[in-house]
Structures are given as C-alpha cells and as structure tokens.
Amino acid sequence: MGVVYASVSDITAIGRTLTTAQESAAEVLLTQASALLRLEALNYGKRIDDMIADTAAGEDYALVVKNVVVAAVCRALDAAEESTGFESASETLGPYQYTYKYGANIGEILYYKKSELQRLGLCVQVVGWADLYGVFPPEVQ
C-alpha cells in the first residue's frame, strides 16, 4: 500500500461539507484515487513518488497531485450521490416509440481527466512522423 496523496481535511478545506457517510467514503476513495494515480503514471513510464521527491519542484508538484486527487474524489462523491444506477429515456415519433434503458456503471465513478494527467506531466502530446518512402536523408530523421 502506497502513500495517500490527500486527506479528508483537504476536501473540507476547499469548502465542501461532507456527511459522516461521505467522510468514510472519501477516506476509501482517497486511498483508491492515490493508487489509481500511481498506476496511471506507471502506464506513462513515470513514478509519482519520485516526481514528488524531486528537490527542484517536488513541493509544488505535491500540491498539484493533491489538487488532482481531491478533484477526482469530489467527482466520485458527486457521481455516487446523483446516480441511481438506472437511467431511461423514451421518444415517440408517429406510430413508433423507442425506449432506452441503461444502467450507470457505479464501478467507474473514480477516474482522472486527460487534462488532469496533462497537468501532472503524465500525458503529453507527442508529434512525430514516419518516412514511409525513404525520401528524407537519415540526418533529417
């Protein structure tokens, strides 16, 4: 088990009030969010703990990591409150009627946005090209 990057007090410090049930859920979600972030970083070949331990920007990076983890947990708490598990819609056009039913995937309420991963320097855009026809000399490649 690794380091948890944020605490429940970090969530309440941004002005969010939590019930006792939400506090206990937030503690579990914070642990899961930290583990998920470590795995996401490993997918990009980086180690969050090493980036936080960096002497040049480690303290600032730790604050950004805390911010991203808190945002993901708040999003998960909101999704857990708003989701009933099922949603449906129906539409009628003349004699035809369509009914759509689908369930919300409760297991996928904890996630990181691509912009958050970019903010952490994990998901960076790379521009590249391939010389398919051998037109360019080797020094250009």
Question: How far is the first residue's CA from the last residue's CA?
Answer: 44 Å
Helix percentage range: 40-55%
The total of helices stands at 5
- Can you tell me the number of structural domains? 1
The SSE order reads: HHHHEEH
Computed over alpha carbons, the radius of gyration is 22 Å
Uncertain spans, ≥5 residues at pLDDT below 50? none
The outline comes out as flat
Q: Helix/strand/pairing class, anyone? A: mainly alpha
What proportion of the residues form beta strands (DSSP E)?
Answer: 5-15%
Average per-residue pLDDT, rounded, comes to 84
| Spatial order of strands in the largest sheet | 1-2
What is the number of beta strands?
2
Reported for the largest beta sheet, the result is: 2 strands, antiparallel
Characterization of this structure:
The chain is flat and about 65 Å long. A hairpin with a 2-residue loop joins β1 and β2. The relative contact order is 0.14. It is 48% helix and 11% strand. The model has no long low-confidence stretch (mean pLDDT 84). It has 141 residues and is mostly helical. The chain has one domain. It contains five helices and two strands. The protein has a two-stranded antiparallel sheet with strand order 1-2.
